[in-house]
Specification:
Largest sheet: 5 strands, antiparallel
CATH class: Alpha Beta
Distance between the termini: 63 Å
CATH topology: Beta-lactamase
Number of domains: 1
Helix content: 25-40%
Structural class: alpha+beta
Shape: globular
Strand content: 5-15%
CATH superfamily: DD-peptidase/beta-lactamase superfamily
Strand order of the largest sheet: 2-1-9-8-7
């Protein structure tokens, strides 16, 4: 029955007769919008002005306030941000810095973008406003001035608060303003890994390496909100910014966002294409080591456990219906969604799930036949920069030194 339902929905989408957008993913929590970055026009939309909880998308506003402080000279990349006991008490995700130690503003940016660290977000709010509640008031006032008329902030991290609310339209607007107002800092949202000495933290945003043209911005999750994302992509000089709320998993959310991007670009007359060469993504950022005293052993172990395979096993597979879902255009009749290959992560997870369901046991793993490797001489510089599954459109920081961050000083005790 499930296969029949998925097949039927796929046929409807293929004919350009998609079902109502509000029922596609996430149920009551679902909303979405994609904006043309140049004009601000909505290309696709579903419940874009319904009230939602921003979760860690809140950190986009925290970073906006930090970038603004840098622009005004109140903060620099090398400025120290002290972790208070209050900030250190925030629940995960967190960096785990002990109270009394400090990190640089640039380390804070990297921690917010990649790890979505709640303790660092609280510390940034305290550094800029004296207290996190006061920072929430400042964030709300600034959001109003940016045109985010339905957004209220109570904290800097997005941790659950029933009064902290927003809409898909407001979050997409904030994404566009970050790009327009701080082009010199927007590249941080393209970082796929941040390395603090021996500790390597992967960005939660898998779309940076799974979908054409995506170069930011931020993901989020809390139970009352579901899996959320704000995404910016550029193809053939046309940039769009989208927001999706209410995914049942990060796999479902990302697959749906990919479908919306393709549909939006189809409206703009931009066809999908294979990308040759780099896209300008900052693949890996280097930062100073966080000493053992600052990063507890448990936190280091948590970072090590956060492998792509572990995350794939932890999340349910995206359904065929979700991967094919599209939202009706905001101003015209629905068009057929552009066909894309399913992201490899979703495909592998769906295959495992289907195998376990049909056999009642884990799939049998067959080791590939081994052949003797052909050894060729490789320069030492190239050997140091080899990484796994690097898409053709990403670039190595060693190959392009202009994209590498300087090594930063370690946390200090005040």
């Amino acid at each position: 029955m499930l296969r029949l339902a998925a097949w039927a929905l796929g046929l409807v989408v293929a004919l350009g007769l998609a079902a109502p957008a509000g029922a596609q993913i996430g149920g009551e929590r679902y909303s979405a919008i994609v904006l043309d970055h140049r004009t601000g026009r909505a290309l696709v939309a579903a419940n874009p002005d319904d009230i939602r909880h921003p979760a860690s998308l809140t950190k986009m506003m925290t970073l906006y306030m930090l970038f603004e402080a840098m622009r005004d000279g109140r903060m620099m990349l090398q400025s120290r941000i002290t972790i208070s006991e209050e900030a250190a008490s925030r629940p995960p995700s967190k960096l785990g810095i002990r109270p009394g130690l400090s990190i640089t503003a640039e380390q804070a940016i990297l921690a917010l973008v990649t790890r979505s660290a709640n303790d660092v977000a609280a510390a940034v709010g305290e550094a800029l406003a004296g207290s996190e509640p006061r920072f929430g008031q400042m964030m709300t006032q600034r959001a109003r001035s940016l045109g985010m008329t339905s957004t209220v902030f109570r904290n800097a991290s997005g941790l659950p608060d029933r009064d902290q609310v927003t809409t898909a339209r407001d979050m997409a607007t904030l994404g566009s303003r970050l790009i327009n107002d701080f082009p010199q800092h927007y590249h941080y949202f393209s970082v796929t890994h941040a390395r603090f000495g021996a500790v390597r933290i992967r960005n939660h945003n898998r779309m940076l390496t799974e979908h054409e043209g995506v170069d930011g911005i931020k993901t989020g999750y809390i139970r009352d909100s579901g899996f959320n994302i704000v995404t910016s992509a550029e193809r053939d000089g046309r940039r769009v910014v989208g927001a999706v709320f209410g995914g049942a998993s990060w796999v479902e959310r990302d697959a749906h966002m990919a479908a919306l991007l393709d549909q939006s670009y189809a409206q703009l007359g931009v066809a999908p294409r294979a990308v040759a060469g780099g896209s300008g993504l900052m693949r890996e950022a280097q930062a100073a080591a966080l000493p053992a005293a600052a990063l507890p052993t448990a936190a280091v172990a948590a970072v090590a456990r956060r492998t792509p395979a572990a995350r794939s096993r932890a999340m349910p597979a995206a359904s065929a219906a979700t991967r094919r879902a599209v939202v009706a255009p905001a101003r015209a009749a629905p068009r057929p969604a552009t066909t894309r290959a399913t992201p490899r992560t979703a495909t592998r997870t769906a295959t495992r799930t289907a195998t376990r369901t049909s056999t009642g046991a884990a799939p049998t793993r067959t080791a590939p036949a081994r052949t003797a490797p052909t050894r060729t001489a490789t320069p030492a510089a190239q050997r140091r920069t080899v990484t796994t599954r690097v898409p053709p459109r990403t670039v190595s920081t060693t190959a392009n030194s202009a994209l590498r961050h300087p090594v930063l000083p370690p946390p200090q005790r005040r």
